[in-house]
Design goal:
Number of strands: 4
Helix content: 25-40%
Strand content: 25-35%
Distance between the termini: 17 Å
Number of helices: 3
Shape: globular
Amino acid sequence: MLYVIYSEDVDNSLPLRMQVREQHLARLNELKDQGRLIVAGPCPAIDSNDPGEAGFTGSLLVLEFDSLEQAQQWADADPYIDAGVYKSVTVKPFKKVLP
């Protein structure tokens, strides 16, 4: 089943993100290689694909797992959590309808 993981950043999270970005992306690439990553990306703090120093306000992921429990466990192990990037993380089942 698909799950959406929406994470909200703390204020001024960009330096924290950069410290563990490689580890964060490595986990996502592992799921991509397994065909379980549907979409992943950050939410820019300003209306721009390259927000520069403005940074990001959060992240949105849609991933495939066998259960909500597995999705939650995966989300809880994100390096951004240990680095203090996220102030909240929400994991919910997701039903893709379109396209």
